[in-house]
Amino acid sequence: MYRSSCAAILFVIGMSAQAYSQGNNENSSKPNILLIVSDDQGYNDLGVLNNDLITPALDRIARSGTRLTNFYVTWPACTPSRSGLLTGRYPQRNGVYDMIRNEAPDYGYKYKPGEYDATFERIGGMDQQEIIIPALLQKSGYASAIYGKWDLGSLKRYLPTSRGFDDFYGFVNTGIDYYTHERYGVPSMFHNLEPTEDDKGTYCTYLFEREALKFLDRVSEEQPFFLYLPFNAPHSSSALEPEIRSSVQAPEEFKQMYPPVEEEVKPTNSYRYGNPALVTTQKARQRDYRAAVTCMDASIGKVLDKLEQQGKLDNTIVIFFSDNGGSGGADNSPLRGHKSQMWEGGVRVPCIISWPDGDIPMAEVNDEFLTSLELLPSLAIATGTSIPADLTLDGFNWWPTLRNATSSPRQEMFWKRRNQIAARVGDYKWVVQSDNQGGLYNLANDLSEKNDLSETHPELLKQIQQRYQRWLEEMEAAEPRGPFRDY
Question: Hey, what CATH topology would domain 16-240+288-410 get?
Answer without folding.
Answer: Alkaline Phosphatase, subunit A (3.40.720)
